[in-house]
């Protein structure tokens, strides 16, 4: 018998978008759902309608005053200057839009559902989740509610003692890291663009190893621009087993932001979706099934293709070689303009799997891996 596998999504996201000038104005979860259907990769019973998070769930991570402010601004359609300054909402980065409260609430509930389904023995993916930058009482980096933090907290609440959080997004998970910085019950492991040149700039350095009881339970691997598949997989292969061996996690939550792909214009990494898939395979072969969340990703076509690949793995499907005519039509209908107009991206409309983007492993990356090894 095939194992039960669930994609937690909703077409409600079509109406819960960010403002028109925002990188997250694009379709993501609804596009993934339509794309999988057009490819014949999603059965009706595999699709689980997302639900909104409850106030109790939000309070596992967030401050009440902040939650109330989000709700109030959503209702009135206005953000006061006081709230803007206090909570960092109503800004260009974190604008007032249907995504701010209703969309975030749905994404957060969906990530808690992923935890619940996982605990029932199901493989569950919440692609709307992974909003790792939000703070308890402050929006940050396009994120309002920290669903990975809430998912982790809900595991702890259910009695888990050692949970590993793995973050593959091109950006460091500052909101998650800071929340669990003094805890030994969550180990935060992140590979990302160095804060020397990328958001969130103030967090994500190697030296941040946790404090108090949490000392040693935080590991950042900040990398230079232009990381290729070979380098990314090398780092993962040489460091993650050390963490798993030392920490012996009882469960793990995996953030699968697709902004580390070459096509993504908001990051400087150059992964192919082949490399991204390999990273996912490596993690699963090391740790078994986990709780899978989405994350960043600002190129809708690259995002839909990459998450569709992971979905094939989660649901034990063969990876189709070609895109169906219906799928091509769907991708071509997406309202999105390439940043670099001259670049040939026709391959994205031909097959699902990219050719590997392999290369040399730079010396600075090898040295960083040695530094990590010396810590264990
Ligand atoms: Zn990101």
Describe, in plain words, how this protein is organized in 3D:
With 376 residues, the protein is an alpha/beta fold. The chain has one domain: Arginase, Chain A (3-Layer(aba) Sandwich), CATH 3.40.800.20. Strands 2-1-3-8-7-4-5-6 form an 8-stranded parallel sheet, sandwiched between helices. It is 38% helix and 10% strand. The longest helix is centred in the N-terminal third of the chain and has 21 residues, at 99-119. Helix 7 links the parallel strand 4 and strand 5 (186-193). The chain starts with a strand and ends with a helix. The protein has helices at residues 29-38, 55-58, 64-76, 81-87, 99-119, 147-157, 174-179, 229-247, 273-287, 300-314, 325-332, 363-374; strands at 5-9, 47-49, 123-126, 163-167, 186-193, 218-223, 251-255, 291-293. It is built from 12 helices and 8 strands. The chain is globular. Zinc ion is lined by residues 169-171, 257, 259, 296.
Brief summary:
The protein has 376 residues and is of the alpha/beta class.
SS elements, strand count: 8
Strand content: 5-15%
- Would you tell me the overall average pLDDT? 96
Which kinds of small molecule does this entry bind, naming each only once? zinc ion
**Count of helices?**
12
**How far from one another are the termini?**
41 Å
CATH class: Alpha Beta
Mind describing the biggest β-sheet?
A: 8 strands, parallel
Derived from helix and strand composition plus strand pairing, the structural class reads: alpha/beta
Which descriptors would you attach to this protein?
376 residues, eight-stranded parallel β-sheet, Arginase, Chain A, 12 helices, binds zinc ion
């Amino acid at each position: 018998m095939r194992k039960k596998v669930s994609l937690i999504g909703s077409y409600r996201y079509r109406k819960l978008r960010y403002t028109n000038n925002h990188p997250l104005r694009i379709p993501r979860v609804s596009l993934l759902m339509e794309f999988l259907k057009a490819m014949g990769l999603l059965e009706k019973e595999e699709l689980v309608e997302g639900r909104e998070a409850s106030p109790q769930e939000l309070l596992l991570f967030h401050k009440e005053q902040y939650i109330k402010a989000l709700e109030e601004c959503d209702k009135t359609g206005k953000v006061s200057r006081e709230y803007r300054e206090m909570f960092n909402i109503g800004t260009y980065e974190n604008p007032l839009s249907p995504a701010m409260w209703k969309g975030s609430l749905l994404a957060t509930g969906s990530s808690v559902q992923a935890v619940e389904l996982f605990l029932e023995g199901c493989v569950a993916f919440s692609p709307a989740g992974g909003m790792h930058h939000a703070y308890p009482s402050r929006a940050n980096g396009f994120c309002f509610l920290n669903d990975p933090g809430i998912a982790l907290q809900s595991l702890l609440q259910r009695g888990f003692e050692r949970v590993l959080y793995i973050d593959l997004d091109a950006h460091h998970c500052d909101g998650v890291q800071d929340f669990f910085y003094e805890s030994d019950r969550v180990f935060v492991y992140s590979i990302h663009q160095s804060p020397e040149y990328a958001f969130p700039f103030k967090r994500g350095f190697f030296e941040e190893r946790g404090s108090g009881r949490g000392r040693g339970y935080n590991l950042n691997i900040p990398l230079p621009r232009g990381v290729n598949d070979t380098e990314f997989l090398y780092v993962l292969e040489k460091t993650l087993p050390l963490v798993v061996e030392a920490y012996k996690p009882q469960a793990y939550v995996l953030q699968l932001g697709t902004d580390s792909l070459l096509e993504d214009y908001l990051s400087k990494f150059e992964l192919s979706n082949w490399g991204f898939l390999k990273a996912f395979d490596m993690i699963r072969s090391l740790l078994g099934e986990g709780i899978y969340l989405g994350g960043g990703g600002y190129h809708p076509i690259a995002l839909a293709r990459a998450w569709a690949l992971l979905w094939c793995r989660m649901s034990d499907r063969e990876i189709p070689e070609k895109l169906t005519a219906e799928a091509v039509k769907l991708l071509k209908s997406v309202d999105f303009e390439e940043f670099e107009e001259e670049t040939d991206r026709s391959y994205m409309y031909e097959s699902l799997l990219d050719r590997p983007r392999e290369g040399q492993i730079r010396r600075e990356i090898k040295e960083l891996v040695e530094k990590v090894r010396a810590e264990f």
